Amino acid sequence: MGICEAGLVQVLNEDGRVVGEQPQNLSDAQLKDLYRRMQWARLFDQRAVRLQRQGRIGTYAPLEGQEAAQVGSSYVLEKGDWLFPTYRDLAACFNFGLSYTSALLYTMGHLEGGRLEEGYNLFPISIMIATQLPQAVGAAWASKLKQDGRVALVYFGDGATSKGDFHEALNLASVLKAPVVFFCQNNQWAISVPLSKQTGHTVIADKAQGYGLPGVRVDGNDVLAVCQVAKEAVERARRGEGPTLIEALTYRLGPHTTADDPTRYRPAEELEQWKQQRDPLRRFRLFLEREGLWSEHEEEQSAAEFKTVMDEALKKAEQTPRSQLHQAFDYVYTNPPQDLLRQKEEVLSWTQRKGSVSWHN
Amino acid sequence: MAQLTMIQAINQALAQALDQDPAVIVFGEDVGKNGGVFRATDQLQARFGEQRVVDTPLSESAIIGSAIGLAVNGMKPVAEIQFMGFLYPAMDQLASQASRLRFRSAGRYALPLVVRAPFGGGVRTPELHADSLEALFTHTPGLKVVIPSSAYDAKGLLLQAIDDPDPVLFAEPMKLYRAIKEEVPEAPYRIPLGQARVVREGRDATVLTWGAPVWLVHKLAGQLQQERGISLEVIDLRSLIPLDEETIMHSVSKTGRALVVHEAVKTGGFGAELASRIMEKVFLYLHAPVMRVTGYDTPYPVPQVEDEWLPHEERILQAVHELLDY
Ligand SMILES: Cc1ncc(C[n+]2csc(CCOP(=O)(O)OP(=O)(O)O)c2C)c(N)n1
C-alpha cells in the first residue's frame, strides 16, 4: 500500500520534509510540545509493556506506532470537550488529563482504575468494540441541545467499522448534525484480521459518503497533518455544521495486547517497513531538528524528565491499597437496593472472619 | 488414548466435524490464520481451507445472523464468539431470531447451528470477557445451553451439539481450557445433551453445578469426606437446556439436601430455577431449603477482587455447613 496515495492528507513526508501546507497556526513551543507528548506516550508504552512482563500490571494493549494519530487529534480539543477512547488510546487520554497513575491502576485491575479525573469529560475506556460511537453522538447531541459549544471526539479502530454501531452512529450523527468527530485509527489489523478481510473497500474515509458527511483520509503517522485535519473537523463541528469522519492511516507496531502473538499472522517485512521508514516520532523529529527546534540533548533531557514523572506515578499506583470486594457494591447503583446491601454485609463479614475461623480445620 | 486439554479436545472435535460433514463451516473473529485467540481452531484453516474455516469481520450480529441463513440453506454453521460477553451485540440475532425461527416458521425451518463462546472467571480478563451469561439464554425458549467441564465431555458434547437440529449455545469455561489433561479417545464419539454427570456419589447432600466450579466442588467434597466424613453427591449438569431433571430429583430425594454453585450473579440466575424445580418436585424429601453459592449481584469485578467475588472454598464450605445443620 503506497502511503502517498491520492487523497491522503500529508504535511511531512517520511523524511520529515514539508510536502503539504506548512502549518501556520503552531508556534515553535507548540511544535516542541507536540513532539514531547509523542515521546512520552512512547516511553509510557514501552514501560507499560515491561511492567506487564514483570507481572506488575495486567494485560496491556500497546499503542506504539499510533502516537502521532492520538496526540495530533487530541491536541486540538478544548478542556470542556468530550473524548471517547478505546483501550488503545492512552496517549490521547493523557493529553486530555488522565494521570499515569490512573492508567496504571486500571491495568492493575484496581476498582479505582476506572475513576477519571474530575473536570474532564473523559469517558471510560471502551472494551467492547464500537459501543462508544453512538454514545459520543449522544454527548454531542446534548451539547447541541444545550448550545454549550462542546464537541465530542471518538476514537475507534478499523475493525470497529464492521460493527452495526459504527453505521448507526454515523447515520444518526448526520441526521442530527451532531458536533462529533469520528476518528478512526486504521492501523490495518483487528487482532489477526487484516483490513482486506474487514471490508470490501480500501478507504474507510469513503464510508462517510453513504451517510452524507465529509470523510477525510490523513497520514496518521504525520502529526502535523493529523493536527490540521482534526482541527478543521473540530471547528466545523463547533460551527454547527455537523460530524466528520477522519481515517488516520497508521500501523500498530506491537502485538494487539501483551497476550497476543502477532508473528502468527503478520508478515515480518510489513512490520519492518513501517518500523524503519514510517515511524511517527522519527519523521517529526527529523523535521524539528532541521528547523533547529530539537536536539539529542533535548531528547535525553525530556526522556529523563519522563522517567522521574513515571517513577513517581508507578510508586503511587503500587502504594495504593489493593481494592476490597466490598467497595464494588458501592458502584452498582446510586441508591443500592437492600438486598445488595445485605450482600455487601456478607462480604464484609467474610473479610473480618478471614484467617480467624476456617470451618474445615 | 491421548491425554488432551479441553482446548485440544475442542480442536479435535471441530476437525472431525469438518472432516466428516462437508456442510460444517467454522467461522468467527480470528479463527482462521490465528487459530482463535485460545487456539481452539488452531491449524483448521490450513487443513480445511479458507472456505470452511473463515475469518469474519468484527461483526457479532452479522456472525449469528448469517449463521441463521447458512443453517436454513443446508449448512451446519459453528460460529465462534470470541468471549461470551460479546454475545450482547448479537443478542437480537441469537435471542430474538435464531431461537424462535422454528416456532415462527411453524416447524418448516430447523436451525442446526452452534455458537461457541468462552466464558467464566478467575482468568484476569478485561471487562465483559468473564461474565457468565447462561441464564439470559436459558430464559430464551428455542435455544439449548451446553457447558462442558472436562476435555472428554467437551469433545463428546460438541460433536453432539453440531449434530443437533436446533441452535445450541456451547459455553466453554476459559479457566478449564488448559487446566486439566484427560484421556480423550481419538475416534469421534457423542454424549447426548440433557444427561447430567454424577461426578461423585454421596449421601448427605447434593451439589448441583456446571463449568469451572465442578472441579472446585469435587475437590472440596473429597476433603470433606476425608476430614469430616461428610458425603457429598456432586452433579455436573453439563447442559442446562435440556435439563436432566431425573438425575437431579433422584439425587436430591436421596440426600434430602441441595446446594447450587454457579459463577453467574445470584438474582435471576439458573440456581433460582433449580431451587424452584426442586421445590415443585421433591419438596417433601427436603430437610433444608435449597441453598446457593453464586457470584454477587455486581457487574463482574476487576481482577484484584475477582477471586473473592467468585464462589470460593470457604463460601461453599459454609453453605454445606448450614445445609447440614439446618
Ligand atoms: C464486540 C466485541 N467483539 C470482539 C472483541 C474482541 N476484540 C478486542 S479488540 C479486537 C480487534 C479490534 O480491532 P480494531 O477495531 O481495528 O482496533 P485495534 O485493536 O486495532 O486498535 C477484537 C476482535 C471486543 N472487544 N468487542
Provide structural commentary.
The complex is a heterodimer of chains A (about 350) and B (about 325). Chain A is built from 13 helices and nine strands. Chain A has helices spanning about 30-55, 65-75, 90-95, 100-105, 130-145, 165-175, 195-200, 225-240, 270-275, 280-290, 295-320, 325-330, 340-355; strands at about 10, 80-85, 120, 150-155, 180-185, 190, 195, 215-220, 245-250. In chain A, α1 (about 30-55) runs antiparallel to α10 (about 280-290), α4 crosses α11 (about 295-320) and α5 runs parallel beside α6. Chain B is α/β, with parallel strands linked by helices and about 325 residues long. A seven-stranded mixed sheet of chain B has the order 3-2-4-5-7-6-12, with helices on both faces. Chain B has a five-stranded mixed sheet with strand order 9-11-10-13-14, with helices on both faces. Chain B is globular and about 60 Å long. Chain B starts with a strand and ends with a helix. Classes of the chains: A alpha/beta (about 350), B alpha/beta (about 325). At the A-B interface, α12 and α13 of A face α3, α8, α11 and α12 of B. The structure holds thiamine diphosphate. Thiamine diphosphate (TPP) sits at the interface of chains A and B.
Spatial order of the strands in the main sheet of chain B?
3-2-4-5-7-6-12
What structural class do the secondary elements of chain A suggest? alpha/beta
Q: Give the helices and strands of chain B as they follow along the chain.
A: EHEHEHEHHEHEHEEEEHEEHEHEHH
- Strand segment tally of chain B: 14
Category from helices, strands and their pairing of chain B: alpha/beta
Helix content of chain A: 40-55%
Q: Give the radius of gyration of chain A.
A: 22 Å
Low-confidence stretches of chain A: 356-361
Write the layout of secondary structure elements.
The complex is a heterodimer of chains A (361) and B (326).
Chain A: E1 8-9, H1 28-53, H2 67-74, E2 82-84, H3 90-95, H4 100-107, E3 121-122, H5 132-146, E4 152-157, H6 164-176, E5 180-186, E6 189-190, E7 193-194, H7 195-198, E8 215-219, H8 223-238, E9 244-249, H9 268-277, H10 280-290, H11 296-319, H12 325-328, H13 338-353
Parallel strand pairs in A: 1-8, 2-3, 2-4, 4-5, 5-9, 8-9
Antiparallel strand pairs in A: 6-7
Chain B: E1 2-4, H1 6-20, E2 24-28, H2 44-48, E3 53-55, H3 60-72, E4 76-80, H4 91-97, H5 101-104, E5 114-119, H6 134-138, E6 144-146, H7 151-163, E7 168-173, E8 182-184, E9 197-200, E10 205-209, H8 213-228, E11 232-236, E12 239-241, H9 245-255, E13 258-265, H10 270-282, E14 291-295, H11 303-309, H12 313-325
Parallel strand pairs in B: 2-3, 2-4, 4-5, 5-7, 6-7, 10-11, 10-13, 13-14
Antiparallel strand pairs in B: 1-8, 6-12, 9-11
Helix pairs in contact in B: 1-7, 3-4
The structure holds thiamine diphosphate (TPP).
Thiamine diphosphate (TPP) sits between chains A (88, 127-129, 156-160, 187, 189-191, 252, 256) and B (29, 58, 60, 82, 86, 89).
